[in-house]
Specification:
seven-stranded antiparallel β-sheet; 464 residues; 15 helices; single chain; 18 strands; alpha+beta; five-stranded antiparallel β-sheet
């Protein structure tokens, strides 16, 4: 039971209204976007409004030997914000200021509670964009996105969050504040601690400010869809496009299950009889180059058994197609009460094999799996449609997940392309990194946070 004095001290730091202790309020913070994970009621939730308040909260937690679970919007898909142990859930959503947009240096500085879409709205006036765009772009916070190093539909050409974060300010476990990185284009002094923080999932400290680089908004784009009668043909088309030295801005895959539920959800005329559809967009600032890349994409799709290929006739149709792709998860979630969404990622050349493997795993365990994802970079999202109340089926689901990750690692892939590890995938970490690798990760954690104050079970949780 949390010491009552801790609650009173937190109220003095942030104000009474920003300390939550009522069970109804706490329930909201007992889970995140991840299915089949424990739901744990926090002891207290605090919403600081400044770096100075975070420093005081950290000092209090250290003195009282409490854990801190930092949280943004809670849209993460790795069990990363579930407060398994005694302590404080610290929510950064009040720290939502865009501190600076610097068009001369092509950078922006933001607090961790800024919503990604809000940042893009702010920089669009300068003809700029912040490329990372996860599916929850309208609700996900920058702090959470940095912590998970999230990706999105533009990840194939433009990269993921870590490719755009060039500086962070962070509160350490002893209450000290450090700043890594900066606006200098060339900054190779010492260890790249900025990149270390990206994807660290809140295990090293609490981010209070983020500096990101921006790019010019592409002026031209060509959007198209290609349908195939087999997953393998679509996989070979993806590999062929990349081998032809075309890197589309977007190359997304939706299998038949996904196409059918998305069409039922948004009604835009998707080809629901196709085994799989690719959604591809080329873009750039030179119209002729965009056209040439689009022609190469069409040629590779036809070469690899494409049944039909169609260009979006205008910007609205292109945007409707992108909206359809973003609707994949909510549409699938309507089919059954529980959607177990994974993001195993493989090298591009193994995409056809991974697609077939997922299909075989679905058949092996008699499960309905809808697969969609960022196919161009090997980041697939096999989504198992199930019901957490059916324990027999959930046992098969867990075995299927084990198989999916085992196959991905065997193909030279990774446990996560953008969702992170959290507690949901921690049991697989040694399979990817080995015992020696895990010891290195543990030592890095302890160098920043020797007493495991921040998110103590990330990467190491075994589920006991």
């Amino acid at each position: 039971m949390l010491n009552r004095n801790v609650v009173e001290t937190l109220k003095k730091i942030v104000g009474d209204e920003y300390v939550l202790t009522d069970q109804g309020d706490l329930l909201t913070y007992s889970y995140d976007g991840t299915p089949d994970q424990p739901q744990v009621l926090p002891e207290v939730v605090v919403l600081p409004g400044s770096k100075e308040e975070i420093i005081e909260i950290v000092k209090l937690a250290k003195a009282e030997d409490l854990h801190i679970y930092t949280r943004g919007s809670g849209t993460n898909l790795s069990g990363g914000t579930i407060p398994l142990r005694q302590g404080i859930v610290l929510v950064t959503t009040r720290m939502n200021k865009i501190i600076e947009v610097d068009p001369e240096n092509l950078t922006a500085s933001v607090q961790p509670g800024v919503i990604i879409a809000q940042l893009n709205d702010a920089v669009s006036a300068y003809g700029l964009i912040y490329p990372p765009d996860p599916g929850t772009v309208k609700t996900a916070t920058m702090g959470g996105s940095v912590s998970e190093s999230s990706g999105g539909l533009r990840g194939l050409k433009y990269g993921v969050t870590k490719d755009y974060v060039i500086g962070v300010e962070m509160v350490l476990a002893n209450g000290e504040v450090v700043t890594f990185g900066g606006k200098s284009v060339k900054n190779v002094a010492g260890y790249d601690l900025t990149k270390l923080v990206c994807g660290a999932e809140g295990t090293l400290g609490i981010i209070t400010e983020i500096l990101v680089k921006l790019i010019a908004k592409p002026q031209y784009a060509k959007t198209m869809t290609a349908t195939f009668d087999t997953l393998k043909d679509a996989g070979y088309a993806i590999s062929g496009i990349i081998a032809d030295q075309v890197i589309p801005a977007t190359m997304e895959l939706l299998d038949q299950t996904t196409l059918q539920v998305v069409e039922e959800y948004i009604h835009i005329g998707l080809p629901t009889d196709a085994k799989v559809m690719l959604l591809i967009q080329t873009d750039g600032n030179v119209e002729a180059e965009v056209e040439l890349e689009a022609e190469k994409v069409v040629a590779q799709c036809k070469k690899n058994g494409c049944r039909d290929i169609a260009l979006a006739k205008d910007a609205k149709e292109a945007e409707d197609l992108m909206t359809a792709r973003r609707a994949a998860l909510p549409a699938l979630a309507r089919v059954k009460p529980t959607t177990v969404l994974e993001d195993a990622t493989v090298p591009r050349s193994r995409i056809p094999d991974m697609l077939v493997a997922i299909e075989d795993i679905a058949e092996k365990y008699n499960l309905q799996i809808g697969t969609f994802g960022h196919a161009g970079d090997g980041n697939l999202h096999p989504t198992i449609l199930t019901d957490a109340r059916d324990e027999a089926e959930m046992d098969r689901v867990r075995k299927a997940v084990d198989d999916i990750f085992a196959v991905a690692l065997k193909m030279g892939g990774t446990l996560s392309g953008e969702h992170g590890i959290g507690i949901a995938k921690a049991r697989f970490m040694e399979d990817q990194f080995g015992a020696a690798g895990m010891e290195v990760i543990r030592r890095v954690k302890e160098a920043f946070d020797p007493n495991y104050m921040f998110n103590p079970d990330h990467f190491f949780f075994k589920g006991e």
